[in-house]
Inverse folding.
């Protein structure tokens, strides 16, 4: 009885044993054995053999069960580790535990250090952020920051000050609400485009100020990228360009107005030109016609009625005829003068040698009559109105031949060269010099001879109406050039012409500059 | 040798008409000279209308001297009409005008005028022209016989 009691006690105390039921079996077996022994004793006094037999049977059954149980159990028991083993293991475990403890402590220390670092870093970061915020708020522009998806997460103080909007309505897409409705869609499109392509954002738009006025702003933003070139942020500004924009608009408006003015002026001038040409044509035609009659009838008078006319009569008719002829020439020359502007051609390439030769061939007769020699130097090519260049040279050479010294055959030289000048934007000009050995003129008249109908001689001495040089000057000035005369009386004259190599403008200039209109007004053919 | 044809002169200017008459006299071209003052009268004459109905007093001309710038109907129009009329288009028309524009010259020849002459400025010039005309049209050239 004692042993099972101990076993039971054991089992009770160690419920963790893996095979408690074996102990129960053992207990039962021992109990059985003990009971059989007890029965032996009992049976000596009482012959309850059947009880003894039962007990023995029970015991046998238990022992059988135990054997059966022991069979699979034995290998397992054998496998149980011995106390030394366990002790060793326990030792190992303890060592491991120690190590773990130490590692833990080390780790804790690291964590503490790291935490301290982070805290100080955080503080620095917060300080830096605060400074940036201060800077952003101090900037005169509106500054904003957006996420890569376009969500604007930060505005500096200016934004709130300007728009009067609160933070809640501004973040995200709220930037577009204070925009002028005409600009809003455009801005949103541009923003979407920039977000999509990553290209810098730039646009001009109007933002509504808190007081209800719109002002023009230049909105710009640049993307900030990480190492893999992905956009992580958009940094943007809005700069007030309202004053500049209004000034620009004002300027544009003034330019528009001025252009319209100029266009109107141009139109007026074109019309005036046309009127002038018509007038000149009519004047020449209709004015000349009665003159022809005067001449013709004058002639008739002298030829058919010679007998009926005395000397005085003939003389009168003669003078009448001369006067009419003179008037004809005046009208013709005036027409030529006016045609310098009205019949002007756009400039084209002109070979001055060819032009000079043509002019000379027209003066063939005068060359013959005066026995003169004209020497043409090598002349350059320029861009000009060829007809007018010819007129120019013809007048100058013609004059040189006409105003020769009595008894001295005229000698005329025409020379030309290209002069390159560094001043005035590096343009070059052509210089022509027409020199003669004729009668010359006093230097005080150097300007006067260029005036219309101004002559230095009576009409008895040299023919001409005094318009040739006026025409020359008009032609030269129309081409943007100049002409001056130099002379010593009795020693010939030199005319120096400067012409740009490229005549200005492709279109004929308007009929009058202010100077010319003055001239024309003074020499109005209707007036005199 | 010189054909005795009638020469019809159309010119609106009375002075010019007189000068032409004088020039013919000076150049001793003695043909029958008739004058009309504008295009309307010219056509009336040629078509025997109005006061020109009687052929005896308005003989058909063998040569027409035509001024271009005339009132009512100018020479250009008259020329076109004459040349469109089958009965009239064979009459030689010499244009004698103050104009010398290239356009007028071109148009005149386009309308089948025989010649284009710019009126000379001087009387003697006019005489020369008439003399030449006389010699050319009346002596040298053959003209179709009239009706």
């Amino acid at each position: 009885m004692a042993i099972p009691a101990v076993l039971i006690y054991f089992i009770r105390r160690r419920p963790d044993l893996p095979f408690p039921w074996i102990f129960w079996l053992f207990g039962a077996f021992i109990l059985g054995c003990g009971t059989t022994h007890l029965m032996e004793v009992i049976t000596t006094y009482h012959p309850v053999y059947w009880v003894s037999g039962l007990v023995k049977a029970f015991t046998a059954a238990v022992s059988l069960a135990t054997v059966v149980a022991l069979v699979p159990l034995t290998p397992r028991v054998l496998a149980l580790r011995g106390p030394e083993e366990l002790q060793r293991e326990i030792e190992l475990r303890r060592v491991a535990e120690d190590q773990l403890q130490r590692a833990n402590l080390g780790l804790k220390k690291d964590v503490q250090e790291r935490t301290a670092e982070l805290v100080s870093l955080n503080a620095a970061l917060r300080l830096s952020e605060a400074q940036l915020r201060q800077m952003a708020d101090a900037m005169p522009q509106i500054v904003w920051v957006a996420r890569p998806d376009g969500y604007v997460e930060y505005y500096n103080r200016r934004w709130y000050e300007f728009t009067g909007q609160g933070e809640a309505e501004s973040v995200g897409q709220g930037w577009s609400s204070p925009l002028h409705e005409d600009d809003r869609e455009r801005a949103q499109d541009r923003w979407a485009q920039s977000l999509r392509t990553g290209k810098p954002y730039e646009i001009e738009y109007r933002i509504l100020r808190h007081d209800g006025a719109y002002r023009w702003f230049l909105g710009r933003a640049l993307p900030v990228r990480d190492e893999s070139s992905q956009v992580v942020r958009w940094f943007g500004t809005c700069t007030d360009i309202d004053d500049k924009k209004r000034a620009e608009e004002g300027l544009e408006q003034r330019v528009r107005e001025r252009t319209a003015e100029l266009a109107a002026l141009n139109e007026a001038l074109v019309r005036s030109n046309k009127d002038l040409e018509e007038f000149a044509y009519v004047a020449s035609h209709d004015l000349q016609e009665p003159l022809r009659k005067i001449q013709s009838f004058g002639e008739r008078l002298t030829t058919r009625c010679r007998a009926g006319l005395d000397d005085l009569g003939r003389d009168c008719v003669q003078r009448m005829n001369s006067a009419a002829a003179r008037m004809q020439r005046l009208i013709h020359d005036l027409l030529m003068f006016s045609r310098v502007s009205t019949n002007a051609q756009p400039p084209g390439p002109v070979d001055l040698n060819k032009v000079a030769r043509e002019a000379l061939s027209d003066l063939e007769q005068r060359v013959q009559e005066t026995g003169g020699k004209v020497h043409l130097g090598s002349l350059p090519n320029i861009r000009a109105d060829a007809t007018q260049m010819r007129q120019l040279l013809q007048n100058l050479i013609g004059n040189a031949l006409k105003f020769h010294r009595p008894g001295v055959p005229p000698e005329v030289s025409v020379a030309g060269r290209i002069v390159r000048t560094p001043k005035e934007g590096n343009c070059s000009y052509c210089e022509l010099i027409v020199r003669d050995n004729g009668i010359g003129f006093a230097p005080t008249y150097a300007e006067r001879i260029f005036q219309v109908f101004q002559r230095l001689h009576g009409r008895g001495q040299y023919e001409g109406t005094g318009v040739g040089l006026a025409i020359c000057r008009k032609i030269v000035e129309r081409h943007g050039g100049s002409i001056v005369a130099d002379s010593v009386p009795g020693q010939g004259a030199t005319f120096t012409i400067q012409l740009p190599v490229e005549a200005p403008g492709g279109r004929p200039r308007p009929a009058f500059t202010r100077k010319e209109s003055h001239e024309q007004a003074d020499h109005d053919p209707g007036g005199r | 040798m010189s054909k005795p044809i009638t020469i019809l002169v159309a010119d609106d200017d009375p002075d010019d008409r007189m000068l032409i008459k004088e020039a013919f006299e000076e150049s001793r071209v003695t043909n029958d000279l008739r004058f009309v003052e504008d295009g309307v009268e010219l056509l009336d004459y040629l078509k025997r209308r109005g006061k020109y109905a009687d052929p005896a007093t308005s003989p058909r001309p063998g040569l027409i001297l035509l001024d271009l710038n005339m009132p009512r109907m100018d020479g250009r129009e008259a020329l076109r009409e004459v040349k469109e009329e089958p009965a009239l288009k064979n009459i030689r028309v010499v244009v004698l005008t103050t104009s010398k524009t290239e356009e007028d010259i071109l148009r005149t020849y386009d309308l089948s005028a025989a010649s284009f002459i710019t009126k000379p400025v001087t009387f003697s010039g006019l005489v020369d022209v008439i003399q030449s005309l006389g010699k050319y049209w009346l002596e040298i050239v053959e003209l179709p016989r009239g009706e």
